[in-house]
Amino acid sequence: MFGNYLVGLREGLEASLVVVILVAYLVKSGRRHLLGRIWLGVAAAIAISLAFGAALTYGPRGLTFEAQEAIGGTLSIVAVGFVTWMIFWMARSARSLSGDLKSHVDRAADASRASLVVVAMLAVGREGLETALFLWAATQAASSGEGSSSAPLIGAGLGLLTAVVIACLLYRGALSLNLSKFFTWTGGFLIFVAAGVLAYGVHDLQESGVLPGLNSLAFDVSEQIPPSSWIGTLLKGTFNFSPATTWFELAVWVAYIAIVLPMFFVRVRAPHPPKASGSAVATKQKATA
Q1: Could you give the 3-state DSSP secondary structure of residue 216?
Q2: pLDDT reported for residue 261
Q3: What one-character-per-residue DSSP string does 137-199 give?
Q4: Average of pLDDT values for 231-239?
Q5: CB atoms within 10 A of CB 108
Q6: Which residues pair with 217 in a beta bridge?
Q7: Percentages helix, strand, coil for the chain, rounded to the nearest 5?
Q8: DSSP H/E element including 246
Q9: Distances 106 to 103, 109, 202, 278 between C-alpha atoms, Å
Q10: Which of 102, 201, 228, 289 could be stapled to 76 by a disulfide with Cβ–Cβ 3.0 to 4.6 Å?
Q11: What is the mean pLDDT of the segment spanning 96-121?
Q12: Greater model confidence, 44 or 104
C-alpha cells in the first residue's frame, strides 16, 4: 500500500502544483475572470482519467484467460514505461515548472477561449492517465495474490488526499517544500516499485504463453514468507514481491534496477539548464509594458 500511496502522493502533487501555479498566476496578474476555464480543464481531466480507469477495469472482461493475461502484462509494462519517464522528467523539471506553465498561460490567454481549458486539461490529464494506468496494474498484481485488491486504491487515495492538502498549504504560504529533493527521494523509491510491477507484467505474459519460463523458478520462499503473512503482504503491497519468482522475472527486475537507478541519479546530479523560457517571458512583458 505504501508504494501506491507514494504514487498517489507524487502524481497528485504534480497535478496539484500545476493547478496551484495556474491559479496563483492568474490571480496575481489580475485575470481572475479566467479561473473558470482552469477549473473546467481540471474537471475534464479528472473525468477522462476516471473513464480511462473504468475502461481498463471492465474492458478486458469476457476474454479468455490467456488474452486477459496478455493484455494485463502488456499494460503493466506500458505503465512502467510511463512512470519511469515521469520520474526522470520531474526530477529535472521541478525547478523550471512554474516558468514553463506561466508562459503557456500567457499564450493561451491571448488565444481562443478554449485554449486555457486545454492547457489545464493536458497538464492535469497527463498525470491522471499515468496514475490510472499504474494503479490498474498495481491492483491487478494485488488481486492475483492473497492480498486485497482494494489496498492499492486506498493507498493511492490517501496519497492524492495528502497531495491536495499540501498544495492548499503551499498556495496559502503556510508550507515550504523543496520540490527537487522531494521528487528525488520519491523517484528513487518508485524505481523499486516500478521494477516490481515490471516483473509482475512479465509473469502475466508468461502465464499467457507469450513469454516462456513460467515453471522455471529462480527461488520459492513461500514457506518462509507466506503471501498471507504480514511481511508477505507488506512486500507485495509495496514492491509487488512474489515469493515464487521465475528466472525471467528476476532477470528483468535486476536489469531494470541496474540500468534505471544509476541513470536516475546521474540525471539528478547533472547541472540544471538555465531558465531561458522565464527570461524570455519577462523580456516580452517588459517590451509590451
Answers
A1: coil
A2: 93
A3: HHHHHHHHTTS-TTHHHHHHHHHHHHHHHHHHHHHTT-----HHHHHHHHHHHHHHHHHHHHH
A4: 74
A5: 21
A6: 246
A7: 80, 0, 20
A8: strand 244-246
A9: 5, 5, 45, 12
A10: 201
A11: 69
A12: 44
Q: CA–CA separation, 220 vs 226, rounded Å?
A: 10
65-100 as b/e: b if 16+ CB within 10 A = eeebbbbbbebbbebbebbbebbbebbeebebbbbb
Write out the three cell numbers for 222. Answer: 513461500
d(CA 39, CA 240): 36
Of the chain, the end-to-end C-alpha distance in Å amounts to 52
How is residue 228 written as a grid cell? 498471507
To which H or E segment does residue 79 belong?
Answer: helix 65-93
Helix (H) or strand (E) holding 219: strand 217-220
Stated length of the chain:
289
Q: pTM value?
A: 0.67
Q: Is the per-residue pLDDT at 278 higher than 60? A: no
